[in-house]
Design brief:
By secondary structure, the chain is an alpha/beta fold. It folds into three domains: about 1-195, Nucleotidyltransferase, domain 5 (2-Layer Sandwich), CATH 3.30.420.10; about 200-290, DNA polymerase, domain 1 (Orthogonal Bundle); about 300-384, Orthogonal Bundle (DNA polymerase, domain 1). It has 15 helices and eight strands. The strands form two sheets. The protein has a six-stranded mixed sheet with strand order 1-4-3-2-5-6, sandwiched between helices. Helix 1 (about 5-20) runs parallel beside helix 2 and helix 8 (about 210-230) crosses helix 9. The protein is flat and about 65 Å long. The protein starts with a strand and ends with a strand.
């Protein structure tokens, strides 16, 4: 197999790929010790059992990835990934580019009846009728030289993907569900999916406390942590974890002496820039005016859910999932069902292709226009 280490060789391969209907792509990266993923390897393969399959080493000095990004912008060639979200985040963060058009085989497989969050290994076994050697999965992809075992493992992630893509794309055409997959992939191609704003980081911190002052301190601590992690390119947990953040929001230390009494704070966070940032964040939270307190965006806790209707919606969802062969969680989440049962209508399960599959009947059930009845081992919808 060829390992591309020069911009010239990358340009040659990408030009060849532009003449093809699709190219399969995968990446290997590290993120355990950094905030931003470190791209360590790119794998690509062209159509055909014996089509070119290459490894691209982005860690080589002087190598430009611009020919790859130019291929991503080339709309006559479909870029095929499996579970593309993390791969796309890397390319968007590094170059502000998305592979377009995109085909995500994990999304397509869920629409085609292969279950929820189906793994690549499962699709290789069920569609390509091959077995994967996963022994190199958790190796350090930043170390050079790569071993032959690593190369073999990496290239298999794009060679079998050709068979999987061709099978799933045919299935989607037969079922007429191509637009369903496109709706899901639109989220993957939206920049907002990958932008993390420090001022919004507090929304990911789980707490049952709704005190405005407490949440104001949580917001400022989360803002400081996120910004510091991004600037230093280190994981959030290396600064302080969520449990320590909640402890700090509760104790509200405003001096180094008070900060030193924290039980959960890492030693490195008790001094220097981090300690000063914590104290400044706590002071900012304490100084916040009541009208500027964070508002908890999740209304689910206050929803007046009709539990009987919610249970019926779950039965309907199961029936629709079995009828269409589409994973239930892809159609509607538990939160979607509860919101519908509480009278909410701004729910993803009621929009797009989901409305056709589930949403229309869900509303009819909520309005008493249909009923559910058992018929053998299945559930039937009956018009009232």
């Amino acid at each position: 197999m060829q390992t591309i280490t020069t911009t010239e060789d990358l340009a040659i391969f990408c030009e060849k790929a532009k003449a093809q209907p699709y190219v399969t792509v995968d990446t290997e990266f590290l993120r355990e010790r950094t905030y931003w993923s470190k791209l360590c390897l790119v794998q690509m393969a062209l159509p055909g059992k014996d089509g070119d399959a290459v490894l691209l080493d982005p860690l080589v000095d002087g190598l430009s990835l611009e020919p790859l990004y130019d291929l991503f912008r080339h709309r006559d060639t479909v870029k095929v990934f499996h579970a593309a979200r993390q791969d796309l985040e890397i390319f968007f963060t590094e170059a502000g580019v998305f592979p377009d058009p995109l085909f995500d085989t994990q999304v397509a497989a869920m629409v085609c009846g292969f279950g929820e969050q189906v793994g690549y290994e499962t699709l290789v076994r069920k569609i390509a009728r091959q077995a994967l050697d996963k022994t190199s999965r958790f190796t350090d992809w930043s170390r050079r030289p790569l071993t032959e075992a690593q190369k073999t493992y990496a290239i298999a992630d794009v060679t079998h993907l050709r068979v999987i893509y061709e099978f799933l794309s045919k299935e989607l055409k037969k079922s007429g569900r191509e637009t369903w997959v496109e709706e899901e992939e639109a989220v993957l191609l939206n920049p907002e999916t990958y932008i993390t704003r420090p001022e919004e980081a507090w929304m990911r911190v789980k707490t049952r406390t709704t005190s405005g002052r407490f949440l104001a301190v949580v917001r400022e601590l989360a803002r400081f942590r996120e910004g510091y992690a991004q600037n230093k390119n280190i994981p959030r947990s290396r600064i302080f974890k969520d449990d320590a953040l909640l402890e700090l929001a509760s104790t509200k230390p405003v001096t180094m002496d008070e900060l030193g009494k924290s039980r959960l704070l890492l030693r490195e966070a008790r001094r220097g820039d981090i300690a000063e940032g914590i104290i400044a964040a706590v002071q900012a939270g304490l100084a916040a005016k009541p009208e500027d307190f964070p508002q908890v965006p999740d209304e689910d806790a206050q929803l007046q859910v009709n539990t009987a209707l919610a249970d019926l919606l779950r039965v309907l969802l199961k029936a629709k999932s079995e009828e269409t062969g589409v994973a239930a969680k892809l159609i509607a989440t538990a939160s979607d069902l509860d919101r519908i049962a509480a009278g909410k209508r701004d729910v993803p399960a009621l929009l797009g292709w989901r409305q056709e599959v589930f949403g229309r009947d869900a509303l009819r059930l909520a309005h008493g226009e249909i009923a559910l009845t058992a018929a053998g081992g299945s559930v039937r919808v009956v018009t009232v």
